[in-house]
Amino acid sequence: MQIINNHKFSDLNNRLAKSVVEMPPSGIREFFDLVAQREDIVTLGVGEPDFVTPQSIIDNAIESLRNGFTYYSGNQGFLSLREAIAQYLEELYQVKYNPKDEIIVTVGVSEAVDLALRAAINPGDGVLYGSPGYVSYSPLIRVAGGVAQKISTSADKAFKMDYSAMNLAVDEKSKILFLNYPSNPTGASYTKEELLNIASFVQEKNLIVISDEIYSELSYNDNHIPFSAIDGMKERTVLMGGFSKGFAMTGWRIGYAAGPKEWIYAMLKIHQYSMLCAPTIAQFGAEAALKYARADALKMRESYKSRRDFIVKAFNEIGLKTINPEGAFYIFPDIKSTGLDSYTFAKKLLNDESVAVIPGSAFGSEGEGFIRCCYATKMEDLQISVERIRRFISRL
Ligand code: PLP
Questions:
Q1: Cβ of 186 below 6 Å from ligand 1
Q2: Mutate which of 46, 110, 218, 240 to test ligand 1's pocket (most atoms within 8 Å of Cβ)?
């Protein structure tokens, strides 16, 4: 048989989705890759707990395998897990969800975010999100066909979105407001009064809301208040919760979304074709987390809190102005006094002192002049990194 066309195929990029080819790679990944190549690095880079998952969770998950449960679950996730989630949300925050049709179990909050966006966006719809903000939001909004509409926040307002900042970003295209508190990368959270202000904006502009509250278990000051607990917001909000951070389960890939049944059903339709179901072993683990590991989660929170107190004080003492964050496990120090931009600072710090931090610019242009440091790492490493950063800035 004759090969008709043996030209080398070289235009694959032209065949791929334009929205993906043009998508910038995550600014965080570049630093993870550099860190992975070297063993001498003290890292404040990766945003994940240093704890191993609590033993009761591991035991229950292993037991499920031993009992031979190696099958798919229903698309929405085990009903018993959804019931446990509903009970958890009601006990902690007094918000009620029907486990039958108002909760879906997902592959991490990551999948929940993607599903909620794809289920709600028509081409050209505007999605408002805070900047600096979690790296996934703007690329996922674009891939879903939406227009990413940035709400600028700043250190002088503790990186919180207020009415005037939201009002500057909103236009007639705007349909969805993205919330994330406690926030990655700044740790900022909201009081009831601040949430009420956001809620009146939402009502005034007739928006629907995706509220990523994956760090809700890691709130240090006041109790966390879900956005859906604010009067009038439940019927227009999808609440995202997870196990990765609060229960130290990042590798298990399990999370959930709770919201109005129409929106959850639309998300379920995409999920049933693209994912079938979340991993069942992780679902058993998640149910055990809510039933048996809440005390472990509280202990981990106390440990992060004392590390936060240490690192905020230490950074302020070495001259890098740092806001005391209300939640999550990140600080977002101001490095403008060094005269370096955040990328150069992070790269040079890695080269000169083997300490990994993430440049603030990876979280949006409003993050320029800052670095993100994750303090969910052992105290000894926090002390070493503070010492090295002190030496590094004294030499600049
Ligand atoms: N949302 C935020 C704000 C995060 O910081 C992260 C992880 O860093 C995620 C979602 C992803 O969570 P999951 O591990 O549940 O997919």
A1: no
A2: 110
CA R_g for the chain: 22
DSSP states along 31-43: HHHHHHT-SS-EE
CATH number at residue 355: 3.90.1150.10
Residue range 312-326: mean pLDDT, rounded: 96
Ligand 1 site, residue 246, Cβ cutoff 6 A: no
Residues 315 and 209 in one domain: no
Under 8 Å between Cβ of 229 and 256: no
Each residue of 155-212: pLDDT tens digit?
999 999 999 999 999 999 999 999 999 999 999 999 999 999 999 999 999 999 999 9
pLDDT at position 3? 54
| For residue 300, pLDDT beyond 80 | yes
User: Whose Cα sits closest to atom 8 in ligand 1?
Assistant: 47
| CA of 391 relative to ligand 1 center, distance in Å | 33
How close is the Cα of 214 to the center of ligand 1, in Å? Answer: 6
* Protein residue closest via CA to atom 12 of ligand 1: 109
Is residue 2 in some structural domain? no
Answer for the pair 305, 313: CB distance below 8 angstroms, yes or no. Answer: no
Do 288 and 309 have their domain in common? no
> Distance of alpha carbon 106 from its chain centroid, rounded?
14
**Does any domain span residue 3?**
no
Is residue 47 lining ligand 1, measured as CB closer than 6 Å?
yes
**Where among 253, 274, 293 does a domain terminate?**
293
- pLDDT reported for residue 29: 76
Atom in ligand 1 nearest the alpha carbon of residue 243: 15
Give kind and range of the element (H or E) at residue 57. Answer: helix 55-66
Give the separation between CA 250 and CA 65, rounded to whole angstroms.
20
pLDDT tens digits, 86-112:
999 999 999 999 999 999 999 999 999
Q: Taking the CB of residue 107, how many other CB atoms lie within 10 A of it?
A: 20
How many Å lie between the centroid of ligand 1 and the Cα of residue 110?
A: 6
Does residue 250 have its Cβ closer than 6 Å to ligand 1?
A: yes
Domain count for the chain, please give it. Answer: 2
Tell me the per-residue pLDDT of 11-66, one tens digit each, with 9 for 90 and over. Answer: 888 889 888 888 888 777 777 787 788 888 998 988 889 999 999 999 999 999 99
